[in-house]
Design a protein that fits this description.
single chain; about 90 residues; alpha+beta; three-stranded antiparallel beta sheet; about 20% helix; globular
Length: about 90
């Protein structure tokens, strides 16, 4: 397993090989609801380094952050009604 910082400021996540979105977000997360999420990181394969930060300044880390990220990406996919969603699932 590579170090999560190996993916820092790179165009492709070293864990899932997904390219960053055009906005610069981790490819496996896609663009999360920007009215809720300030920023997030998938952890690049290291669960304990994943995080999600909300506009109210609350920050959640680790496996709990990954669960929230999954929930938000699933909600977004359902809202888009996209059966062609090419994002990877977050491990």
């Amino acid at each position: 397993m590579s170090n999560y910082l190996d993916g820092y400021e790179k165009d492709v996540c070293t864990h899932c090989d997904k390219k960053r979105t055009k906005e610069g977000y981790d490819g496996c997360l896609g663009t999360l609801d920007e009215s809720i999420v300030m920023n997030a990181c998938c952890g690049h394969g290291e669960d304990n380094t994943a995080y999600i930060q909300f506009w109210n300044k609350e920050r959640v880390s680790g496996v709990t952050a990954i669960k929230i990220q999954r929930s938000l990406t699933n909600e977004q996919a359902n809202q888009n009604n996209s059966s062609n969603d090419t994002r990877c699932t977050i491990d």
